[in-house]
């Protein structure tokens, strides 16, 4: 299976367990790996006006901006579900990194699902 990797897409999100934490926007980094057949994209190179990853990036932005969340696990799961629902991949892995724990580089979760 072919893969598309979107590495460390930086977005602002309202995320956190406490209401005070969700009030302000926080930086998150998302890495998404899509497994799908890229043969069609390769064959129709001259006809394309958008790429498969352009559509995925917009979907991710929409899901993140949709509403505040308490957990990065929920964000990763919702992104994964939307990508699979829209048949943008056969298998998808989503990692979300958050920078809220003092004296750590980041905390992250990774979710992988398949159709």
Describe this structure in words.
The protein is of the alpha+beta class and 115 residues long. It has a single domain, classed as GTP cyclohydrolase I, C-terminal domain/NADPH-dependent 7-cyano-7-deazaguanine reductase, N-terminal domain (GTP Cyclohydrolase I, domain 2), CATH 3.30.1130.10. It contains four helices and four strands, in the order βαβαααββ. It has a four-stranded antiparallel beta sheet, covered by helices on one side. Helix 3 packs across helix 4. The chain is elongated.
Question: How would you briefly describe this protein structure?
Answer:
With 115 residues, the protein is of the alpha+beta class. It is 34% helix and 34% strand. The protein has one domain: GTP Cyclohydrolase I, domain 2, CATH 3.30.1130.
């Amino acid at each position: 299976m072919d893969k598309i990797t979107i590495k460390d897409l930086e977005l602002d999100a309202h995320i956190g367990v406490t209401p005070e934490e969700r009030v302000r926007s926080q930086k998150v980094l998302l890495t998404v790996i899509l497994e799908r057949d890229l043969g069609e994209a390769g064959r129709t190179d001259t006809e394309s006006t958008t790429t498969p990853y352009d559509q995925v990036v917009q979907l991710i932005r929409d899901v993140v901006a949709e509403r505040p969340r308490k957990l990065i696990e929920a964000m990763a799961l919702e992104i994964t579900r939307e990508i699979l629902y829209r048949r943008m991949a056969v298998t998808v892995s989503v990692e979300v990194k958050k920078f809220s724990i003092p004296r750590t580089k980041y905390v992250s979760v990774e979710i992988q699902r398949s159709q």
